Amino acid sequence: MKNNPKALIFLSIGIMLTGTVAINILNANRPVVVTSEQPNLREVPRHPVTGEMKTDATARQGRLMPATVLPDQSGQEVDLAKLASQKPLVVVMVKEGCPCNIESQPFFNQIARAYGDQVQFIGIIDQERAGAAKFHSDFSVPYPILSAPKESTFQAWDAKQSVYTFLIGPKGEIEKVWPGYSRTTLVELSSLLAERLQIPTLEVDFKMAPDEMTSGCYFFRDDPAEGA
């Protein structure tokens, strides 16, 4: 029996396509894993924190945080004012798919785990509950991720970009705002938490965090720099 060249070609293409589909299915079901051993994936910040952003962040210290009650990844309503009255509260703004959130999340995970139940971390993501649950699972977040699919939540916090981080006092006052993250800001956050708790600063490894502060992607709009 003679080989049919056309049949062999079609058979080869079919095998290749089947293998590609199988690989894509496996990759789609595989959770994203990020560890703190991964450095910031760019040599320079994607979204540099400007002097104006730093000045604005400093000016917000002492103001009350906005009233915020949102569902977490499991659907449970969470009242941030109530949490803040019980223990130091850290609020981190999250945008789905933002590389800066992906790269910074391991560091927030480390701090949250180091201080345990003495401190309450909260993430607020621009997604419905299913998106909050996916982020919580994909990045093994050890604290609640709240669902905030409407821009009004981020406007109330005046957080135009992701990775904005807030330290909240017992009466709901904003003690510190970081408009991005870096090795220095993470060390400062850990030190302030220890000071609030009146304990020595716990040792957390931030060596893979970026030297220069970087903010995250814009919420509900394109990056103005990309259109320039």
- CATH class placement: Alpha Beta
Q: How many runs of DSSP E, i.e. beta strands?
A: 7
> Within the largest sheet, what's the order of strands?
5-4-3-6-7
Number of helices: 7
> Helical amount among residues, as a percent range?
25-40%
In short:
The protein is α/β, with parallel strands linked by helices.
Molecular structure report:
- There is one protein chain.
- The protein is built from seven helices and seven strands.
- It has one domain (about 50-220): 3-Layer(aba) Sandwich (Glutaredoxin).
- The chain has helices spanning about 5-30, 50-60, 80-85, 100-115, 130-140, 150-155, 185-195; strands at about 70, 75-80, 90-95, 120-125, 145, 165-170, 175-180.
- The N and C termini lie far apart (about 65 Å).
- The model is unreliable at about 5-40 (pLDDT under 50).
- The strands form two sheets. Strands 5-4-3-6-7 form a five-stranded mixed beta sheet, with helices on both faces.
- By secondary structure, it is of the alpha/beta class.
